[in-house]
């Protein structure tokens, strides 16, 4: 029997689709569908997908494409470097549906050794351009580094990185939340919760970034590690400039703010950086720790310059006699034009500064 209602819809130009408004041929429920769907569709749903061990979920999207993760996306266990997920494309929109989870099964990799143990896969790479937006993604149990951002003109908002299970007995290490590198530019990360065992955010390289309304638990803080490529690669001199962290909480971790460079790092520059309205709670080592002897304590031959650094309205607490509210170790002639105001960090021992910022008495 002819379905007159369907004929009416087709004549009216209305597509027949799933309840999500997506062509059923653009739903990914099996890994074998990924390549074809990504090639042919702009409105994609990834639903309860199981990614085989050792395989990468590569979403090399068409311009203006949309991807929605639904249900439980689980990645099989294999000891390789990853990334488990890579998203590429221009002006794409990637989001998680309510209740959705991307699960790396990190609990099956953690070994108390992090970088020094078995090889573990990195989780999620953002490699997009053109005003792309990633929203409401829930990452569970990163085995190693959680999110790599090597992108231009991207907004990341409403994420949760949940590595709480890795806190037990110090199982998980080197589970950085967001690592920003690869000459990234015009990056906004906001309204996000990170619960992990290394840097909440670490900037290696890039320009024009804002990190705001972040809540970081158990981490090593809001960080920079510039020039990290090593002196054997002089072509990789790195710059991090025009970057702001504001309205953030860092709780129950090693450091609150951590800027690190070292004598074995490559040449680099950190310039035009502002930390504003940052709260600490229960920090166990240093509240503000800026060190240019990372990896070789006491060696001040760093080739990373830190210029025009502003830290304002930072408050909260550190705990333990060995913790310092403020700890500054600059390389020789490496630091200039720093301004600190409104620093009110309680607890711990004495501050130490071999460079004195304007407006702050160490």
Automatic annotation (TrEMBL):
EC numbers on record: 3.2.1.15
Signal peptide: 1-19
A Gene Ontology biological process term: cell wall organization
ATP-binding is among the record's keywords: no
Catalytic activity annotation: (1,4-alpha-D-galacturonosyl)n+m + H2O = (1,4-alpha-D-galacturonosyl)n + (1,4-alpha-D-galacturonosyl)m
Any one cellular-component term (Gene Ontology): extracellular region
SUPFAM superfamilies: Pectin lyase-like (SSF51126)
Pfam families, per database record: Glyco_hydro_28 (PF00295)
Gene3D superfamilies listed in its UniProt record: Single-stranded right-handed beta-helix, Pectin lyase-like
Highest taxon above the source species: Eukaryota
Molecular function GO labels: polygalacturonase activity
Keyword NADP attributed: no
Keywords: Cell wall biogenesis/degradation, Disulfide bond, Glycosidase, Hydrolase, Repeat, Signal
SMART domains reported for this sequence: PbH1
Family statement: Belongs to the glycosyl hydrolase 28 family.
Protein name: endo-polygalacturonase
Organism: Phyllotreta striolata
């Amino acid at each position: 029997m002819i379905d007159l209602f369907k004929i009416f819809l087709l004549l009216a130009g209305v597509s027949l689709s799933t309840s999500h408004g997506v062509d059923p041929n653009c739903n990914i429920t099996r890994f074998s569908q990924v390549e074809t769907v990504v090639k042919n569709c702009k409105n994609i749903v990834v639903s309860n997908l199981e990614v085989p061990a050792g395989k990468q979920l590569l979403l090399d999207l068409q311009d203006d494409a949309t991807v929605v993760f639904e249900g439980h996306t689980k990645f099989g266990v294999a000891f390789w470097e990853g990334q488990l997920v890579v998203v590429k494309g221009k002006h794409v929109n990637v989001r998680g549906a309510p209740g959705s989870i991307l699960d790396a099964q990190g609990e099956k990799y953690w070994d108390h050794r992090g970088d020094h143990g078995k090889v573990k896969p990195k989780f999620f790479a953002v490699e997009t351009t053109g005003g792309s937006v990633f929203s409401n993604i829930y990452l569970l149990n990163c085995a190693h580094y959680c999110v790599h951002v090597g992108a231009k003109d991207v907004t990341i908002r409403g994420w949760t990185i949940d590595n709480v299970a890795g806190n037990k007995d110090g199982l998980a290490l080197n589970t950085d939340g967001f690592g920003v590198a690869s000459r990234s530019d015009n990056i906004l990360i906001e309204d996000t919760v990170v619960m992990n065992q290394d840097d909440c955010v670490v900037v290696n390289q890039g320009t024009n970034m804002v990190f705001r309304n972040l809540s970081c638990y158990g981490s090593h803080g809001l960080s920079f590690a510039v020039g990290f490529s090593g002196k054997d690669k002089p072509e990789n001199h790195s710059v991090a400039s025009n970057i702001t962290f504001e309205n953030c909480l860092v709780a129950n971790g090693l450091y609150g703010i951590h800027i690190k460079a070292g004598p074995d790092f490559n040449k680099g520059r950190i310039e035009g950086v502002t930390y504003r309205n940052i709260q600490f709670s229960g920090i166990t080592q240093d509240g503000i720790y800026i060190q240019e002897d990372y990896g070789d304590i006491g060696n001040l031959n760093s080739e990373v310059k830190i210029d025009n650094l502003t830290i304002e309205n930072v408050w909260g607490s550190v705990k333990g006699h060995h913790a310092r509210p403020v700890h500054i170790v600059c390389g020789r002639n490496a630091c200039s034009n720093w301004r600190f105001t409104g620093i009110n960090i309680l607890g711990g021992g004495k501050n130490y500064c071999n460079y004195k910022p304007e407006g702050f008495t160490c």
